[in-house]
């Protein structure tokens, strides 16, 4: 008999990879739940003959009632992420925290024996510049203004206090298909950065379904491991070169000097030993991303690299805080 799996946030970066990997297994019937928009319809509609697609709002109890019955396992990835989460903290709390609570309550009523697999974040540990090696038992101390991290901590508590069986994966920096934004300047250049690819991350969620006993009622740090570690400055330098943008030659104070997150997962091998989900190294990540960039785009970026960097610099809030002598923002970004 096939097991019934519910996947939320299926059109997102990790969610889409998770769906693809679930579809490789013939032992599952799959229901996906997502917000209806142009991107979700485009991504999910090709699979409409193989999965049940339910569009709705995770914060609407009536919508969630439709997806909660008779589920054997749930992979809950739906969330509002930065920078939107930071710009609209109330929306982030409503979706990330209250949406999780509503889903949990409906599953407790309709699928009390389901296994709930949750995607949390390395952001819950806050600024780890001075102490970059992170373990699950470390204190949760979100950076100032990190609304996203707060919503994840609250959601974790709801899950742990529920009547369901559960596991929580705190994801490292998940890199793949990211667009450059103002957030790139919030992270100090000397940050210790451990990444994981969306494919490897998805593999962990899918494999966890059949490893319920080993991960039950436990929290894990999920990262790519030692082969996926680099400084943030080193990561940006390789990225800029790959995109044809040349050197990472931004002016002094373009990047924040504190109050972000990320680090190296000292205990990350614990989850790998159980699930054996890692297939990609840092070099694999860059190879995968490089394959997505057409020679034409790379050539154009090389020609227009100066205006592109000027445009990016205009989005640097740390740099603007210095230029405008904004004391509140300077205190947020600089020592």
TrEMBL record:
**GO MF entries:** oxidoreductase activity, acting on the CH-OH group of donors, NAD or NADP as acceptor; UDP-glucose 4-epimerase activity
| Catalysed reactions, as listed in the record | UDP-alpha-D-glucose = UDP-alpha-D-galactose
Annotated coiled-coil segments of the chain: none
One Pfam family name is 3Beta_HSD
UniProt protein name: UDP-glucose 4-epimerase
User: What biological-process terms (Gene Ontology) are attached?
Assistant: monosaccharide metabolic process; steroid biosynthetic process
InterPro entries listed in its UniProt record: 3Beta_OHSteriod_DH/Estase, NAD(P)-bd_dom_sf
Top-level division of the source organism's lineage: Bacteria
Show the Gene3D superfamilies listed in the entry: NAD(P)-binding Rossmann-like Domain
Per the UniProt record, the source organism is Bizionia saleffrena
């Amino acid at each position: 008999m096939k097991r019934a799996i519910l996947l939320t946030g299926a059109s997102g970066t990790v969610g889409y990879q998770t769906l693809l990997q679930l579809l490789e297994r013939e032992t599952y019937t799959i229901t996906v739940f997502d917000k209806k928009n142009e991107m979700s319809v485009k991504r999910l509609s090709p699979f409409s003959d193989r999965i049940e697609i339910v569009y709705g709002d995770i914060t609407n109890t009536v919508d969630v009632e439709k997806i909660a019955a008779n589920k054997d396992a749930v992979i809950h990835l739906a969330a509002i992420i930065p920078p939107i989460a930071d710009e609209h903290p109330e929306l982030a709390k409503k979706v990330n925290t209250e949406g999780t609570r509503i889903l949990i309550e409906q599953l407790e009523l309709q699928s009390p024996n389901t296994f709930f697999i949750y995607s949390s974040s390395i952001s819950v540990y806050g600024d780890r510049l001075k102490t970059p090696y992170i373990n699950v038992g470390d204190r949760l101390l979100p950076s100032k203004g990190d609304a996203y991290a707060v919503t994840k901590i609250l959601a974790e508590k709801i899950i742990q206090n529920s009547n369901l069986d559960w596991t929580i994966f705190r994801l490292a920096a998940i890199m793949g298909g990211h667009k450059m934004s103002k957030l790139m300047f919030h992270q100090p250049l000397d940050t210790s950065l451990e990444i994981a690819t969306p494919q490897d991350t998805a593999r962990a969620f899918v494999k966890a379904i059949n490893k319920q006993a080993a991960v039950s009622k436990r929290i894990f740090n999920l990262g790519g491991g030692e082969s996926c570690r680099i400084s943030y400055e080193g990561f940006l330098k390789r990225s800029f070169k790959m995109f044809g943008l040349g050197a990472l030659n931004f002016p002094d104070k373009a990047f924040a000097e504190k109050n972000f997150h990320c680090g190296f997962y000292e205990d990350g091998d614990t989850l790998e030993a159980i699930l054996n989900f890692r297939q990609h190294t840092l070099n694999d990540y860059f190879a995968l991303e490089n394959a997505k960039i057409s020679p034409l785009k790379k050539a154009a970026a090389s020609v227009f690299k100066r205006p592109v960097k000027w445009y990016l610099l205009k989005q640097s809030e740390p740099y603007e805080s210095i230029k405008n002598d904004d004391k509140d923002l300077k205190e947020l970004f600089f020592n």
